[in-house]
Amino acid sequence: MDPVELPVVYTRVQVATAGMTRAQLRDDGARATRGAYVSRAVAFSLPNVCAAVAEVLPPGAAFSHGTAAGLLGAPVRHAFPLHVSVPPGVARPQRLRIRSHVRRLDEDDVDRAFGLPVTSGAQTWLDLAPVLPRGELVAVGDALYRGGHLDAARVDARLRRAGGVRGVVAARHLAPLLTPLAASRPESLVRYAVVSAGLPAPEVQHPIVDRWGREVAHADLGWARWKIALEYEGRQHAEREQFGRDVDRYSLMAADGWLVLRFAGRHLGRLDAVVERAARALRSRGATW
């Protein structure tokens, strides 16, 4: 039998139209939800799964909440159920692996990612405000800023018309902390822990210059007044070349009087220790707050 030509994502209707047999479907199709499949020729990734599911969603539906955040590049776990928002008066999808929400979305509340309808960065961040821990909400907001899906004007505009929706108080409190300069989720979590503990707010990606004014490094977080830097070391820092570069820049920083506190993944579950050590370092340099 000649091979059946189908897109990499397809529906049960397309399967029948193409004349694909049950055996062919079983061999090729990974089910995203009832009646929607991803070909095993491509990754069963969030964009591909959502592309398949989009084929069976009602008009006006948009991926939302954590699903939208994942499609927009935020650091959230990509897991089922997929979250979908539909307009009032539209039948909610009753399908396995889909959790539907009913809400009226303005034109500014809907964007596109991977060619799919998703809630905008501001709407997505507001939707997650009542369900994420505050540090994680800052990390998602920073990532949306970094990806160009969010900025202060869009956040402010969305929050002004949020009324009394769930999570809006937390969102209004955290919005001033968001920045596109945070390079990763761990950096955002550390920054939130430090600020929420009442320590002076650190500068993000602070440039370190030597005595001749040449930039020799960037601190993930830094207090220039007291020459203290916080650095998060991800796995890439263990690579030989990166390790050598790190040693070089840390020695340059120390030569000009900078105290560098280094943290790793193990500390993300002990952020109180990060805060305590940062506080001790600040006090050792004469900081008060």
Description:
The structure is a single chain. This protein has 289 residues and is an alpha+beta fold. It has two domains: 57-177, no CATH class; 185-284, Endonuclease, Chain A (3-Layer(aba) Sandwich). It is built from eleven helices and twelve strands. The protein has a four-stranded mixed sheet with strand order 9-10-11-12, sandwiched between helices. A three-stranded antiparallel sheet has the order 1-3-2. A three-stranded mixed sheet has the order 4-5-6. Helix 4 packs across helix 5, helix 6 (134-146) crosses helix 9 (185-196) and helix 9 packs across helix 11. The model has no long low-confidence stretch (mean pLDDT 93).
Helix content: 25-40%
Uncertain segments are: none
* Structural class estimated from helices and strands: alpha+beta
Strand content: 15-25%
Instruction: Let me know the largest β-sheet.
Output: 4 strands, mixed
Distance between the amino and carboxyl termini: 77 Å
Number of helices: 11
Q: Helix-strand pattern, N to C?
A: EHHEEHEHEEEEHHHHHEEEHEH
